[in-house]
Amino acid sequence: MVKNSSDDYPKPSALIQFLIRLRQVIFPGSQNYWQKRYLMGGNSGKGSYGESARFKSEVLNKFVRDNNIDSVTEYGCGDGNQLSYADYPQYIGLDISEQAIKRSSALFPEDSSKSFSLYDPNEFELNKQKFSADLVLSLDVIYHLVEDEVYRKYLENIFNSAKKYVAIYSSNEEVHGMLHSRHVRHRKVTSDIEKWFPSWELKETIKNVNAESESKGKEPSVDFYIFQSC
Ligand SMILES: C[S@@+](CC[C@H](N)C(=O)[O-])C[C@H]1O[C@@H](n2cnc3c(N)ncnc32)[C@H](O)[C@@H]1O
Questions:
Q1: Which of 77, 203, 205, 219 gets the most CB atoms within 10 Å of its CB?
Q2: Distance, CA 143 to ligand 1 centroid (Å)?
Q3: What confidence category does residue 3 fall into, taking pLDDT thresholds of 50, 70 and 90?
Q4: Cα–Cα distance for residue pair 136/60, rounded to 1 Å
Q5: Does residue 141's CB lie within 6 angstroms of at least one atom of ligand 1?
């Protein structure tokens, strides 16, 4: 289990803490946000389409080939669009939105190498048994996990399920305050992983080639962080 320490982050000022709490009261929660978004016809966001989706898949397809990866599980697969570019021997896509799982499954009806499932983030042992894979992916999900508990459970599930590698595509910078939208919370994820999962080491960082055009300098860049079991 991950340890629960109040010293994990530098403490923001009282005003910022108040604003964060206010935002949490107004915001329905990350899970609720995504479930509603898909039910209303929304998609996984711009990171799942076009140049961003192509870049993510180029990096991952090469990694899978170079490291003889047999099985891949993704926590937070979204609407499945970015998978159109993926070339994995066996793939399981998981999400907390039933609608996202329905849409992803509908995109690949004839492809027996891909399967999709709704998963329960509280079922750590069951998730480990059912969804273990050589490589576990987290792509454009972590900075959407605004609640600390949801974030910790998510990391615990991905590291529990990974046999060899975890590939995270995320921002990696603590940003306090209200500068970003309600469903975004940037964190120093590599530091948290170092503290909470000491049997994993950062093997490689791969910079996002589209970073400047995507963030326009306003948001932290989103890059690849690849961890290896040691
Ligand atoms: C921005 S989309 C990214 C989709 C896909 N990974 C991609 O790169 O195209 C974020 C996804 O994370 C999912 N998500 C949100 N909270 C989650 C959680 N606690 N566990 C797993 N997935 C979650 C959302 O439902 C959504 O499909």
A1: 77
A2: 10
A3: very low
A4: 11
A5: yes
CA 76 – ligand 1 centroid, Å = 3
Residue labelled with tokens 């530098």 = 10
Q: Average of pLDDT values for 57-70?
A: 98
Residue 181 pLDDT exceeds 90: no
- For residue 217, pLDDT beyond 70: no
Q: Sketch the domain layout of the chain as residue ranges.
A: 14-229
Atom index in ligand 1 nearest the CA of residue 82 equals 9
Span from the CA of 205 to the centroid of ligand 1 (angstroms):
21
- Say if CB 227 and CB 201 are below 8 A apart: yes
CA 146 / ligand 1 centre spacing (Å)? 12
The fourth-level CATH superfamily of domain 14-229 is: Vaccinia Virus protein VP39 (3.40.50.150)
The confidence band for 81, taking pLDDT boundaries of 50, 70 and 90, is: very high
Q: Is 99 in the pocket of ligand 1 (CB under 6 A)?
A: no
